[in-house]
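Deliverable D5.2: sample structural annotation.
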Amino acid sequence: MPKIKGLPKIGNIDLGEFPLLLAPMEDVSDPPFRALCKEQGADLMYTEFISSEGLIRDAVKSVQKLDIFEYERPIGIQIFGNDIESMKRATELTEAANPNIIDINYGCPVKKVACKGAGAGILQDIPKMVKMTAEIVKSTHLPVTVKTRLGWDDDTKYIVEVAERLQDVGIQGISIHGRTRKQMYKGEADWSLIAAVKENSRMTIPIFGNGDVSSPEISVEKRNKYGVDGIMIGRASIGYPWIFREIKHFFATGKLLAPPTMAERIEAAERHLEMSVKWKGEKVGINEMRRHYTNYFKGIANFKEHRIKLVTQDSHEVIKEVFEEIKAKYSGEEMSLV
């Protein structure tokens, strides 16, 4: 097991012994969902990624993503873009929102981002990636972190060198997804190269691993085998904020925590929906909740009919009625899951 060098800190932010991070996910890691994840033990959270061009143009959706709350701290705001001057300006606007950290997205693999040279697209131009990072670091007094991937494809896995160069220009933490851009989210994440970054004797900043962390047992394996300073959790948290408390319980006791009861699942899903509608309006709030319902009620017997209703109804009032039906069906003793 690689030696972990002290407790991880980003700037002067103490993250504890082995922090769990909520990954920045578009249309997922918004304030309603972050509130639930914080309650369940997330140590550091990041916002949805924000377009630098959107911020500069004062686009409503981009500006709204800057909103953060005291109970969320420490929290990082993530920005992306392909133009250095725009990213510098976006950094200044982001700093004004008073986050604890500014994070740069060098990892998003989706075509509309990467193929424009932003997100993981910049992995095809490492000199520009380093230059942009240096300019962003110089543009703010806040600590800057980076989220990225192993490389663009199997022939360009330069992450060990890239991480070192980014540290040299001033970043104070890096989260690495163990796939290339070409892989998207397919295949198995390769944590051996994340470990290689951690084992580099020149690296002094925290190294966080990301990819395929879906259970407490896997979390312990990643921690013990690869020596990372913490773990960033993405898809496994969607509709299941309890992943954070379950991992922490397993770290502390070596025992698996009982899964959330049906009552807890219903209460969390209802709260999430209410906050989502309040935050983004009925149409968007309802639409963006749909991806969460499968995990909120995963493994529940005879739930298919209710799930279909939850993901097809467009009315907040009707969905609230569906939740009442669910409560009636799974009341009493059936509220506890086996």
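Annotation notes: The chain has two domains: 13-253, 262-335. The chain is about 45% helix and 10% strand.
The annotation will be released with the project's public dataset once the embargo ends.
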